[in-house]
Structure formats: structure tokens, C-alpha cells
Amino acid sequence: MNRPQDHLRRAGLELPPHPPAPAGAYRSATLDRGLLFTSGQVPLTDGQLFAQGKVGQEVEPGVAVLCAQAAALNALAAAAEVIDLAEARACVSVRVFVAATPAFTDYVSVADGASRVIAAAFPDAGLPVRTAVGVVSLPLDAPVEVELILTLDGNG
Fold first, then answer.
1. Are 67 and 116 a contacting pair, CB within 8 Å?
2. Domain holding 62: CATH number?
3. Does 16 reside within a domain?
4. What are the mean pLDDT values of the chain's consecutive 10-residue runs (156 residues total)?
């Protein structure tokens, strides 16, 4: 069976055993009509942010790419709390929010960190559609937040 966790491991990436707990009144992921939606995930590892602050100020762009990668892994972990990831056929959409200074505009490069995780997890599915936007701030002063939409096997 092609398990996204196995594909990630072969790419040198590890799915966290559990996603970060929701910081408010919401679910980390929900399933509706064959689509799995994740809430936005920040780059928390063992309760600590991988980095904190704005890209272009406290956070270097290369570190922000790693934050996007960690946040995407957390989003997949959130999905795995609702479904067996082997049931997912593909990730069809990635949204990446980048907290940055007004001078920093290379959101595409930061978002590529998340896209690389998705490409590794679902190598036969092709790349998803993606939105990458800059924002003034994110929860916990995180530099990056990622949300995903997965489609399940049998869902056209």
C-alpha cells in the first residue's frame, strides 16, 4: 500500500505522531463528502515554534521555508487523526500564509517548503493548486501557517 508516511520517510521527512492541539474552538481537521480539510497549522514541534516573528525581520527566508515544511507536516498529522492517510488520493489544495515585513514579497519560495512536503507524500498525484499570501501576523507570532485539502480514494 502506498502510504504517505512511507513516502515522507523515504524523502527524509517524518510525520509527527500527533498534530498540535487546537488553540481555540475549532477542529484540526474535518471530513466532508470525500474531502478532508485541515485547519491552519503553524510550525509547532513538541509545543515549541520552530521560529517566531516575521519573515524578513526576525526570521530568515530559508528558516521560513523550513517552517512551511513543518507546518505542512503538522497539517498531514491533523488529517491522519481523522483518516488513514493511505485513503487519501491526493492533496488538491495548499494555502500558505506568511507573516512578513512589507519589504518581503517572496511568498512563493516560502510556500515551496509546504509544496515539497506534499509532493513527497503524494508522489503520483502531481502538485496541488496553491495560494501563498503575506499577512501582518499569525497565531502565536508564527511566521507561517499552512492548511490543506485532501481528496479521498473514489472521490472524483
1. no
2. 3.30.1330.40
3. no
4. 89 95 95 98 95 98 98 98 96 99 98 98 96 98 99 75
pTM of the model: 0.96
Q: Which of 113, 139, 117 is nearest to 7 (CA)?
A: 117
Structural domains in the chain (count): 1
- Find the domain containing 148 and state its range: 4-9+28-152
Locate cell 510525520: which residue? 15
Rounded CA gap, 14 and 69, in Å? 11
